[in-house]
Each structure stands twice: as structure tokens, then as C-alpha cells.
Amino acid sequence: MFGDFIRRLTAPQPVPLDDSDARLALTALLVRVARADGSYDETEATRIDRIVRARYGLSPFEATKLRNEAESLEAEAPDTVRFTRAIKDAVPFEDRLGVIEALWQVVLADGVREAEEDALLRLVSNLLGINDRDSALARQRVEKA
């Protein structure tokens, strides 16, 4: 279903994503982080819906539809590095901290920080050009909210 999209993501010289594809890639990354600990539940899915509704001004129906598409894409996609590269190319550096905060919101949605989620978030942060300190500060902001 997402063969063309995945081919564009995995191309040696990927073309920057348009807004719609960037939304899908970011949402798929949120799903990947939520699934990292082997437990993807309604709490995390609801949090993802809230994040994409707020970030993109979507209706509840549109947010759920985007998440459902992202779940399918995430299941077909080869690796996190390619997702992250697409997002890095599509999101200006100044906005990437918002991406990290969104990822932390998903990790913390179920109230438990698992080692697998921490490891994946550390990898993603570094691939996005966000250092560990800034990622930790983003996590702290999310925890206080």
C-alpha cells in the first residue's frame, strides 16, 4: 500500500517530503516509538491522535485516519533511520525540539519509561541533530505539563 512512499524514503538521495507526507512520516515515527516496548495500547494511540490534532489542526476523525495510515506505514517501513532522515529533511532544525517533545509525550503516555523506548528516542534525537541534553530538557517539559 505504501510501496512508493517507502521507496522515496529509502532512496539514496531522498527528495524532501511535502507537507502531507511529512505528517505521515512523523506520525509513523510516533507509532514506532509507541510500539518500541512491545506494548501499543489505547492510551498511546489516543496521545498520538491528540498530538497530530494539535500540531496539524486536524479534526478528531482526521487525526485517527492519519494515525491508522501511519500504523500501516510503520508496519511496512524498513527502519527508523529512514523515517528520521525524512523528518530531518522535512522539518527545520528549530522545530525538531517540538518533534522530540511529541515523541516524549508518547513514551510517557502510559506512565512507564521502558528501556527500549529510551534507547529508540536517544537514537532518533541524535539522528535529528538534537543532543542528549536538549532531549532531556524536552522530556522534563513534557513531564511537567
Structure overview:
The chain is mainly α. The protein has one domain: TerB-like. Helices cover 75% and strands 0% of the residues. The protein has 8 helices and no strands. Helix 6 crosses helix 8. The longest helix is centred in the first third of the chain and has 17 residues. The model has no long low-confidence stretch (mean pLDDT 88).
What's the order of the H and E elements? Answer: HHHHHHHH
Helix count, per DSSP?
8
The amount of beta strand, in percent, is under 5%
Helices and strands: which structural class?
Answer: mainly alpha
**Mean pLDDT across residues:** 88
CATH architecture: Orthogonal Bundle
CATH superfamily: TerB-like
Organism: Tropicibacter oceani
InterPro entries: DjlA_N, TerB-like
Domain Co-chaperone DjlA N-terminal: 23-140
Pfam family, one: TerB
Secondary structure topology:
Blueprint (H helix, E strand, L loop, with lengths): L2 H8 L8 H17 L6 H15 L3 H17 L3 H11 L2 H15 L7 H13 L4 H13 L1
Helix pairs in contact: 2-3, 2-4, 2-5, 2-6, 3-4, 3-6, 6-7, 6-8
